[in-house]
Amino acid sequence: TIEAIDALRDIPYDVLSIAKVNEANIAKLMYSYEMLTSLCAKLMGIDAYNQPGVEAGKIILKEKLST
Fold this sequence. Notes:
Layout: H1 2-8, H2 23-44, H3 52-66
Protein backbone atom coordinates (compact mmCIF):
# COMPACT_ATOMS: atom_id res chain seq x y z
CA THR A 1 0.00 0.00 0.00
CA ILE A 2 1.00 3.62 -0.33
CA GLU A 3 0.99 3.89 3.46
CA ALA A 4 3.53 1.05 3.75
CA ILE A 5 5.84 2.65 1.19
CA ASP A 6 5.45 6.06 2.82
CA ALA A 7 6.42 4.58 6.18
CA LEU A 8 9.81 3.56 4.77
CA ARG A 9 10.62 7.26 4.25
CA ASP A 10 13.44 6.63 1.79
CA ILE A 11 11.65 5.39 -1.32
CA PRO A 12 10.45 8.06 -3.74
CA TYR A 13 7.11 7.39 -5.40
CA ASP A 14 4.38 9.08 -7.37
CA VAL A 15 0.68 8.88 -6.74
CA LEU A 16 -1.54 9.19 -9.77
CA SER A 17 -5.28 9.45 -9.66
CA ILE A 18 -7.79 9.70 -12.42
CA ALA A 19 -11.27 11.12 -12.11
CA LYS A 20 -12.92 8.28 -13.98
CA VAL A 21 -11.65 4.85 -14.97
CA ASN A 22 -12.48 4.54 -18.65
CA GLU A 23 -10.71 3.70 -21.91
CA ALA A 24 -9.73 7.28 -22.69
CA ASN A 25 -8.17 7.93 -19.28
CA ILE A 26 -6.37 4.58 -19.21
CA ALA A 27 -4.97 5.33 -22.69
CA LYS A 28 -3.74 8.73 -21.48
CA LEU A 29 -2.06 7.10 -18.49
CA MET A 30 -0.38 4.49 -20.69
CA TYR A 31 0.80 7.19 -23.10
CA SER A 32 2.28 9.15 -20.20
CA TYR A 33 4.31 6.13 -19.08
CA GLU A 34 5.46 5.43 -22.63
CA MET A 35 6.68 9.02 -22.95
CA LEU A 36 8.38 8.82 -19.54
CA THR A 37 10.17 5.63 -20.62
CA SER A 38 11.36 7.30 -23.82
CA LEU A 39 12.55 10.40 -22.00
CA CYS A 40 14.42 8.48 -19.31
CA ALA A 41 16.10 6.30 -21.93
CA LYS A 42 17.13 9.38 -23.91
CA LEU A 43 18.60 11.00 -20.79
CA MET A 44 20.53 7.79 -20.01
CA GLY A 45 21.80 7.55 -23.57
CA ILE A 46 20.14 4.24 -24.38
CA ASP A 47 17.72 3.14 -27.07
CA ALA A 48 14.69 1.91 -25.14
CA TYR A 49 13.27 0.30 -28.25
CA ASN A 50 16.30 -1.72 -29.35
CA GLN A 51 17.70 -3.50 -26.33
CA PRO A 52 19.18 -6.94 -27.13
CA GLY A 53 18.70 -8.08 -23.53
CA VAL A 54 14.98 -7.44 -23.76
CA GLU A 55 14.69 -9.59 -26.88
CA ALA A 56 16.74 -12.35 -25.26
CA GLY A 57 14.45 -12.22 -22.23
CA LYS A 58 11.40 -12.53 -24.45
CA ILE A 59 12.85 -15.62 -26.14
CA ILE A 60 13.66 -17.26 -22.80
CA LEU A 61 10.21 -16.44 -21.40
CA LYS A 62 8.49 -17.78 -24.51
CA GLU A 63 10.43 -21.05 -24.22
CA LYS A 64 9.55 -21.42 -20.54
CA LEU A 65 5.88 -20.69 -21.11
CA SER A 66 5.60 -23.17 -23.97
CA THR A 67 6.78 -26.12 -21.86
